[in-house]
Amino acid sequence: MANTELIEKINKLKKEKNAIILAHCYQNPEIDFVADYVGDSLGLSRLASKTDAEIIVFAGVYFMAETAKILSPNKTVLLPNKNSGCNMADMINLKQVKEFKEKHPGTPLVCYVNSTAEVKAQCDICCTSANAINVIKSLYMQGAKKVLFAPDCYLGSYAQKNLPDIEIISYPGYCPTHLRIIPDEIVKMKIMYKDAKILVHPECHQEVVKLADFVGSTTQIMQYCESTKHKTYIIATEKGVVDRLKRDFPEKEFILASSKLVCHNMKWNTLDDILNSLLHNQHEVTVEEEIRQKALSSIQKMIELK
Fold first, then answer.
1. Burial class (CB in 10 A: 0-12, 13-18, 19+), 120
2. Are residues 170 and 215 in the same domain?
3. How far, in Å, are 22, 41, 161 from residue 46 at the CA level?
4. How far is 160 from 167, CA to CA, in rounded Å?
């Protein structure tokens, strides 16, 4: 089936079923033709929770669909392709997070939203890559001398560099995609494109982060490119961000820092998958209510921070 026909069928079907389609910005850009919202995982889930849609189709990975279910328990949440997982989220499970906490009794646990519902349910407060520093700082202001951070040790290291007065003990998880970029590649890019701005995601190795002109989440990187007047940008995050920037701002030049910056799990979802998901209510994501309530509490504490 041609893409145009697929897109028409999906857009018609989502209206008939009162469905909303969310697309993470690491997805293949063709998904945007049927998406109601494109963005980062938590932002998309929050937007969906405020709609009257009965069905949420989340073109992303499993933990993102879980987060949507946590925030919208009365909506049906569908994952187009059941193979869409996250290597980093899979690095810590319920047993491992409990063991991590038991090694440091009484120490608050900050949990990155890139984690499963059962891990979120074990933490004191969640964070995103955009607000990790502020979340940890809030615990310091409440008297904490140290915090636990899971699962991304590189985001934890980035926060530690910016918060020297509090000890951050990080779980040894990481994003394989962001670690594929090495400092030498950035150095070479800086030589080739002398006037370019280097934009880096904090999940990257800290030696890469040190070379950045700007460090931020995917949304923050995209906002920076929109709001600044530089001509050339070197982007050290997943390829999907560069694809969208090139499309949305053709007058500017966007260069992917490395051809290896592709998250294959994020590319699993296709227009065919989305159509089948809508047709058959395929791959519904559920979260046990006790876990959902605990995970929701950790998310709400983060949202309530000023």
1. buried
2. no
3. 11, 9, 30
4. 7
- Residue type at 214 in one-letter notation: F
3-state helix, strand, coil split of the chain in percent (to 5) is 45, 15, 40
- Residue 151: cis peptide before it, omega within 30 degrees of 0: yes
Tell whether 132 and 154 lie within a shared domain.
Answer: yes
Quick one: tokens of 244? Answer: 């969208």
User: Which of 158, 175, 192 marks a domain boundary?
Assistant: 175
| Integer Cα distance of 37 and 2 in angstroms | 23
Whether 29 and 77 share a structural domain: yes
Three-state DSSP at 136 gives helix
Counting the structural domains of the chain, the total is 3
Global pTM value:
0.94
Could you give the CA distance from residue 112 to residue 177 in angstroms, rounded to a whole number? 17
- Residue 244 lies in domain: 178-262
**CA angle, 184 as apex, 182 and 189 as ends, to 5°?**
105
pLDDT tens digits, 75-127? 999 999 999 999 999 999 999 999 999 999 999 999 999 999 999 999 999 99
- Domain end, chosen from 245, 262, 279, is at 262
Is the Cα dihedral 136, 47, 115, 202 positive or negative?
Answer: negative
